[in-house]
Amino acid sequence: MCYIAAMIRIASLLLSLTLLSACGVSPSGQEGPRILAMGDSMMAWNSLAGQSIPDVVAKELGSPVVDRSVSGARMIYRLPISGAAGLSIPKQFRNEDWDWVILNGGGNDLLFGCICVQCDRRMDRLIAEDATSGAFPDLVAKLRQSGARVVILGYLRSPGRSSPIENCRDEGDALDARLAKLAEGDAGVTFVPAAGLVPDGDLSFHALDRIHPSPKASRIIGGLVAEVIRAETALQ
Fold first, then answer.
1. 3 state SS of 19
2. At what angle do helices 53-61 and 215-235 cross, to 10 degrees?
3. With the CA atoms of 96, 100, 106 and 109 taken in that order, what torsion angle do they form, in degrees rounded to the nearest 10?
4. Which region among 12-21, 39-48, 70-79, 215-224 has the lowest average model confidence (pLDDT)?
5. Residue 176 belongs to what domain range?
């Protein structure tokens, strides 16, 4: 069962790379928007080189982004690990008068919760088909009640060449469709998909593990997020 072995190796890699990102408070006295990033390794990847999605957004907008994303984090996380609250994406949020929250998640729930096979129950717990219930709608409602606008990121698809997450494509499509529906119901929520970003067989959008974004992918996705925030801020 080489696929299961690959999943175990991925789990070990993610746990070994789990780093609690900077947990600073909302910047004060700044002219630009106050922005928080929450999520898992897709958000956090390339942060050590200053090239993560939040890093790109900060550079594009000239405004600080507080990044609380953590590699290995899940939307639904109940393991009693001391000091690992950041592994629960909802617990990464503290209401500190944010203008914007950039959010991603769900990939680890599907990958490790059901190995991207027969994931209907897990998917419904993340977000129902009608997008009215589940961990995502609950968290987004909390973020919106705080006054923040929300940008939800869709998942980067595999390059289609020997990727350990190739089997997760259908689940990624289903999750994206539900997240898009969630965003459609609230003008303060924007969904930014990444499903069509990677040409088939193009490895330049991924790290060597063919799972996580390369600096190139983080730069493109971060640029798309910055465009949303810039455009919406100009309309206010």
1. coil
2. 40
3. -10
4. 12-21
5. 2-235
Q: Which of 83, 65, 71, 82 has its CA nearest to residue 46?
A: 71
pLDDT in tens, 191-229: 999 998 998 889 999 999 999 999 999 999 999 999 999
Q: How many structural domains does the chain have?
A: 1
Residue 2 has pLDDT above 60, yes or no: no
CATH code where residue 198 lies: 3.40.50.1110
Number of alpha carbons in the 13 Å side-chain half-sphere of residue 18: 18
> What is the arithmetic mean of pLDDT over 102-112?
95
Q: Would you call 219 helix, strand, or coil by DSSP?
A: helix
CB 87 within 8 A of CB 112: no
Which amino acid type is present at position 131? A
Among the listed residues 116, 98, 93, 236, the one whose alpha carbon sits nearest the alpha carbon of residue 169: 116
- What average pLDDT does this structure show over 175-195? 97
- Structure pTM? 0.86
Q: Which of 135, 181, 167, 151 is nearest to 61 (CA)?
A: 151
| Measured distance CA(131)–CA(142) in Å, rounded | 15
In this prediction, residues 174-201 reach a mean pLDDT of 95
> Encoding tokens for residue 130?
């009608």
Provide the b/e sequence for 145-173 (b: ≥16 CB within 10 Å). ebebbbbbbbbbbbbeeebbbebbbebbe
What is the model's pLDDT at position 200?
85
Residue owning tokens 């973020």: 143
